[in-house]
Amino acid sequence: GSVMEKVLQRRSLQMRNMQRAWQESPEGNKMLDFRKSLPSFKEKERLLQAIARNQVIVISGETGCGKTTQLPQYILESEIESGRGAFCNIICTQPRRISAMAVSERVSAERGEPLGETVGYKVRLEGMKGKNTHLLFCTSGILLRRLLSDHNLNGVTHVFVDEIHERGMNEDFLLIVLKDLLPRRRDLRLILMSATLNAELFSNYFGGAPTIHIPGFTYPVQAHFLEDVLEMTGYKLTSLNQVDDYGQEKLWKTQRQLLPRKRKNQITALVEDALHKSNFENYSSRARDSLASWTADCIGFNLIEAVLCHICRKECPGAVLVFMTGWEDISCLRDQLKSHPLLGDPNRVLLLTCHGSMPTSEQKFIFEKAPPNIRKIVLATNMAEASITINDIVFVVDCGKAKETTYDALNNTPCLLPSWISQASARQRRGRAGRVQPGQCYHLYPRCVYEAFAEYQLPELLRTPLNSLCLQIKSLQVGSIGEFLSAALQPPEPLAVQNAVDFLKRIGALDEKENLTNLGKFLSMLPVDPKLGKMLVMGAIFRCFDPVLTIVSGLSVRDPFLLPQEKKNLAEIAKSRFSAKDYSDHMALVRAYEGWKDAEREGSGYEYCWRNFLSAQTLQAIHSLRKQFTFILRDAGLLDEDGGNNKLSHNQSLVRAVICSGLFPGITSVVHRETSMSFKTMDDGQVFLYANSVNARYQTIPYPWLVFGEKIKVNAVFIRDSTGISDSILILFGGALSSGVQAGHLKMLQGYIDFFMDPSLAECFLKFKEELDKLIQK
Ligand code: ADP
Ligand code: MG
């Protein structure tokens, strides 16, 4: 103990000397001046005192006032200054990986140190931290994972949970766990940080914890709603009908219905009509749909383009931030703008993108000032709403939507829908324009639509399936899931919890008494949805690990097949070349990945991606996730050293079977193919194939069933990627395997199998089923 103590003391003195030297240097001094100009600086002493006296405090303040970069740093600095630097361990969580990386880099720069020294970060698949790291920025998911194995957070002195106003699932979950931990760790300090003003909610949750508000200063921002925007830009809504290819077929129909009235050119009246007709107050899904489809045509790319042109031609200098719903839209719009005579001219416009999956190397550019006479335009997801501050923004273009997962507990289906943001978000987006001078915000929806927005967004915990969360709760060993979740700020519906528990039982992660099985323990360690984790385990047990590994990594990163707007058809053809008549998007992914690996080896990876409309960056991410999964599985003893897990990788029907076992019950019957693109599901619903699915290109599919990974509701229900499977697969690996068939059932099945099924498949099934059961039982 005392030797360690001495080492740390010596290290603390070193830290103090280094800190002082930096602060006294000319650059350090300049940095300090900047930091002192931030609104948070005035609250520094009050904050340090409050932290000394209270175990929990809540801090709120305008975005950009210095919460994230400054507050954890104040504590670090004051600990270092008092000669205790090496004894403190500060963790600050972020909802998104990119903000954890950006912020840690910024804080290191402010301290004049390389990243990974005193300040570091850790996110899934990446990290920069060392033995001298005392302030760690990580995603909330990473801290939760740490809590699974380190229930008391030993050695941690301060935890900051940032952006709690977003009410992300991980943040809400963290708050329950930390609230439970505080009595056991009296010395631990918890600081909650929030951008908007609902601080009392969190203060009450922690028994009236003191709150500190950091008064901020922002310039006024003028809000323009769609009515004004149309007038300013002279944009004609009717022309949308000819050019915009924003949505799907369904949407076109809605547009056509609305057209005669649109001609009257009374936008407001039109929307009010829509609002009235579908009773928006109750937020019925129909109301949302009809409004969504109405506005989807208004926020077509052409309108955004018109607004950007207007800014570039008529407005004063200043960077532009465009809020869009997701990476797909961003890349499509970027491609469109690139070919525009003004907006695509690199001598006049610097076009940048900002989204959750962008690589660190690209990140830096969005913070840099554009050269004089060049207009910086950043296309961003709602990530730029609160967690990232781009300083020179003067204009904001807000499409009014964000992609959020919604979850319908009754039908137990998750959907990823671009849906309306809340009024709070809209105000937040607008505020981004007033950081350096008075700004302008162009909301691409009518004022009356804004007024119908919800005041705040529904917490994520109430709108996502809880499968993964419930599994984590179980591995925290905190007792009943329902009881645990009832301690949340806003507990989820019991039905949603029940669905999750049923699901976990069905895949064998929980036993009948809701206890974690071995499989469950293992799945909770994998940084992936339990369903995909199970598929991975199946791949290992059924000896076809490698292709399954690629599929699971692909499904949990994102689709590497690009679909540029103006080359859609070429891209689809390129993808279909990977399909080789196996009627599977998942297998196409495996081929594409393997081709890329070969090309990389020959040094032509980039060319390969270009030729095949593939994203090198996504393939790279899939590649590193593959490595991480392999590592974890090997560690858990599920992989043989001699490659035995790949002995049957060439057996296509087995790979198909494992895909089915993982994705079940996402299944649709091909028998009732209605049109070339639409299918009936087992429960008589209708689904459409995504245009770039390889299966959309075939006239007939020689499989009676399609199993799919993701269902997305955008007016109609679309399935993104699918694989054709046979009856035998469905019977053996669909229902039966995932619901844990008993020996008796198996006997019965045996007759059936012998009768007409794929004998090799049945053989594998019987041989390896036992192995799987063992994993589930113990
Ligand atoms: P908050 O968390 O309150 O929203 P931050 O701590 O993230 O605020 O940012 C405070 C200020 O620090 C910002 O207003 C901006 O001026 C500056 N800043 C933050 N990140 C960077 C960066 N990467 N580069 C330059 N300046 C930055
Ligand atoms: Mg912040």
TrEMBL record:
GO cellular component terms listed in the entry, alphabetical order: nucleus
Residue stretches making up the Helicase C-terminal domain: 303-477
EC code: 3.6.4.13
Tagged with keyword ATP-binding: yes
Keywords in alphabetical order: ATP-binding, Helicase, Hydrolase, Nucleotide-binding, RNA-binding
Keyword tRNA processing attached: no
Single GO term (MF): hydrolase activity
Reactions listed under catalytic activity: ATP + H2O = ADP + phosphate + H(+)
Domain Helicase ATP-binding, first and last residues per copy: 48-215
Family named by the database record: Belongs to the DExH box helicase family.
Protein name, entry field: RNA helicase
Organism annotation: Citrus unshiu
Range within the parent protein: 212 to 989 of 993
